[in-house]
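FW: tagging you since you asked about this chain on Friday. Here's the raw sequence from the shared folder, copied in full. Didn't touch anything.
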Amino acid sequence: MEQHVLKEDELVMVSDEQGDMPEGRRRLGLYYRDMRYLSIFEMTINRQRQRPRLLSSSSEQNYVCDIQLANPTIELPDGNTALARTIGIRRSRFLKQGLHERVSFYNHNPFPVPLQFTLTFGSDFCDIFEVRGWEREKRGTLSPPTLAGSRLTLDYVGLDGVRRRTEILFEVTPSRAEIEERPALPVLRRSSTFLPEATETATMTVYHPSCAQVSWDLTLIPGKPISITFHILVSEGELTPMAQAFDRGLADLRNSYQGWLSQCTRLETDNQLFNQLLERSALDLRLLMEPTPEGPVPAAGIPWFACIFGRDSLITSLQTLMLNPQIAVGTLRFLAKHQGRKVDPWRDEEPGKILHEMRKGELARLGEIPHGAYYGSVDATPLFLILFAETMKWLDDDRLYQEILPAAKQALEWMERYGDIDGDGYLKYFTRSSGGLRDQGWKDSRVSITYPDGTPAEPPLALIEVQGYAYKAMREMAQLLRRKGEASLADKLTERAALLKENFNRDFWLDEKRFFAQGLDSSKRPVETITSNPGHCLFCDIVDEDRARYLVLRLTSADMASGWGIRTVSSRASRFNPMSYHNGSIWPHDNSLIVAGMRRYGYHWEAEEITSQLFQASLFFRYSRFPELFCGFARDREAYSVPAEYPVSSSPQAWAAGSAILLFQSMLGLQVDAASKRLYLTPKLPSWLQHASVRNLRIGKGTVDLYFERHDEDTSFKIAENEAGVEVVIPPR
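HL: got it, structure written out here
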């Protein structure tokens, strides 16, 4: 199902392609701080309440949605007939402290047309977890809509004592209004299509709240457009924000997006389709930015994950250091502030552990779920350390170093004291919270970590990619600390990392399969299913050179590489399902880390092949946007098959957007060390790129402009501007 998505700060809108939110369409709505403030929003015309006919619609610019509609055939009271597609109807909307919409009518008939225009509003004020299927015994008080002049109010007082309101302000007072009061009793509905990780049909609770229908009696004169403008404002306990002028608000948003792009590195090539993918990624990252006192931090994705997730924000920040290192700065500061402080089993919290997920809805405020600040991820803590070390390579910011260092040392202590449950040197997870996640790596659905016979592996589990993250975290922190004068701690981390690498290549290696296990189970037995997870270990440099060759060979074999990218699990696995969430689908972020690892180990052709597959897949997605994931069907070139979308994938999604940036950086073999003023380059443009440029690349306190050109199988480069004063180094690999 096509949908429109807008997000600005903490406000999120998800509508159907006509701009409506029909009752009963589960994921649609206007959301604020993890609560749905509008669940019914429909536009109809005439007394028969007909939906206009859709002609076109777009939210490509991310900050504005424009929808072009037309009338069905209308029989008029005077005997005339307004034929279909003789009245143009245009809906334009944006988000800025509310949803602002203008509906314009254009009569192309030679006679006036009387028209009744109706908008229907209603809200169940459900928490996002209720929308996803969380069952509640009690809810707060939902009042019927009230209309006073040109102001319609929807009101809910939650069990947390917070009054939440949706107020719709009409610039033209409606001709009439009807309030349909309903008891908002729960209705059970069986479904399995609206949750991203759903593996079976579930019984969900749906509420049918009271709603208001407001109408205008219009007379459309030929050649004289009529517009109705209204503002949907939301509030949580505080005063409702003031409505602003429509045109001024839209101009402010446009300027904000232009300002964002001007802060980012300018990435361009001679391939306009690839440029679209790069620009789409930059625009999506702007859309997903979540305002915090510590700076903007990327939310994970829309609609289900429109909040800060530690793992997602960290990986996104790593992917986009070349684009805008300030994303990493905001992420580090926010996660350092909210680092675990105590042992709290309900939240899976431990001292030094990095946050997994932070929610602000009614259920989180009441403590019915642990997600007000939930720490159930085993990988966020080492990823935090990696991002800290990498960000220092880019910025060499002493003030940021001193600010984040205490949190980094606490994270290192967590890895040793809490992450390694039994002292064997491997990070593991075991869920203590009754409301927490059973699996706590990035593949966190219930059947994503299974033995070859399909049986789920039992925690405590040591996931393979997490050991790679731990190794990279210790190695890079050792280098950073040594440069800053803390040699003793650096030496300790270097020794621990070396021991981890030795044990890792012994314990996770499957000699008969010439591949690595997905993890070690509670009995230290390898989980031998062939998955994409070991590919992350190439990114982390933990794989022995002689084994990297076999790893890359299998990842690019037909059972793993679909022709559109690398699958999460082999097509030969018993649990393989190309339409599943984690067992055969293709995740762009997963592929981007694997490609970056292939380049690090010198497998340039393989990296280029997977990058090309992903780029070709992107051409088939709306707005050239990488979704969170898509189906892992094999590409059939003879039948000209196209990649299949995963029906409830988040889109836009942060680390999917970041994937295009990391793929481009990997092509260039670009790494930096601002402290030593060095820029490392091993460029290899693919066959479909001849030229590329990187302008306003921030390194330390200066910037660099780079140009690349492909000559047959080689790629040359030159530095056009070098305000950062860096020296270019071509590393041996």
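FW: The mean pLDDT is 95.
HL: agreed, and The longest strand covers residues 226-236.
FW: great, closing this out.
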